[in-house]
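Troubleshooting: if your tokenizer reports a length mismatch, compare your output against this known-good record of 303 residues.
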Amino acid sequence: MPMAAAVEALRRALRGGLDPESDPPRTVVPVAYGQLLLMPAHQRRYAGVKIATVAPANPAAGLPRIQGQYLLLDAPTLTPLALLDGGALTTVRTAAVSALAADHLAEPGAGHLVLFGTGPQARGHLDALRAVRPLDRVTVVGRTPGRTAEFIEAARRDTGLDDTGLDIGPGKPADVAGADLVACCTTARAPLFDGALLPPHATVIAVGSHEPDAREVDPATVRRSTVVVESRAAAVREAGDLIPELADGSIGRDSLVPLADLVNGTVAVDGRRPRLFKSVGMAWEDLVVASAVHEAISEGDGK
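Known-good structure output:
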């Protein structure tokens, strides 16, 4: 599915009345070498469940950190309709949700993206954010110079960036001072940059963790920003980037802006301060994108 189509599927779902607050909580089962995740969801036409694994040591062995399968069902009969690759689905839907948020938060002319990370989510976010904003410069901040160089070369080769005039190169955390967009797509357990450096017009996307004790952005970023979340309930349970500030009263639960309210235009965002979208990843997102893929394939086959 083209990234723009995934973004629009999510937008239509939220404008059609889908309520992320009603999503069943994610089930996380710790195992010896990582986690097993179970993420069910249902709507009027479809139901589905993702079974995913998170194995932190896998990349060192040349294997994906996140793997799994998604089973899409017909809602009225619960008849299986399709089986999708869970890792690929996660990459697309996470980046598409971020792009949807950025489309409502970022400055219309946002051109400079500072991208933290060099894995599948970083690549997905590069594609997704290019679909909603006129990026002309991408600064990649990776863990090692070698991985960063490989990521940049692959992006240039696979997407023809050199032909579009997009300037992409390595950078450092302090480069957020000149960013219009910042995307945090890492497995970091501690903040990646100094939030005091963010310009007031910047939009930050943080997607790296659904764990309450891990964070990619610092307290300064959270306290300075208008904070948008997929759902307040999920953020309070899982968003380690926000939980310390919620606990000490630096921000209040009611101050968290639900993504659905943003998309439906029922809230206005203060353009004089940074904007932070904190995503933990939710089952409704998998279901929306999986069902859109299924419908596109079925229509293409004439069924």
